[in-house]
Design goal:
By secondary structure, this protein is α+β, with helices and mostly antiparallel strands. It has 2 domains: 39 residues; 93 residues, Immunoglobulin-like. It is 26% helix and 39% strand. It has 2 helices and 9 strands.
Length: 148
Amino acid sequence: MSIKINTKRIKRGLEPLIAAIILIAITLIIAIAVAAWITGVFSTSTGAGVEQLIIYPNTSLKRSGNNWIFNATLANRGTATIEIVGLTVGGCSPEGGVSPSIIEPGNITTITANFSASTCKFINGTTYQVQIFTAAGNVFSSTVVAGR
């Protein structure tokens, strides 16, 4: 005596069940990812914060003897400490870097940099592109008018 099993019926019954389980699993994974993204779990779990540097419009570039003095008021509105590793004004780099170079979250500070007048040929009344480079690899840009 042999028992015959209808395999066609079993296949039809399992396929919708497996499809439903897969859809529920995908939905749960997407929901967890969206919830984690909204609450910021991914950025805080790695220890990384967000750099958000505000450059105030009172930026100045003034001639003083054989130097150009650059001043800019900056605010760190992000969640990470910002370390300034570079600065260019019109493609020219300052002598001796930027002071201060560290801005803690929530702080507002004025940075200063000296440019040699013999190396950097700024012209009064001309607008120059300012770029501030951070240790995290971000670049923040603004403009400054020489002589103001």
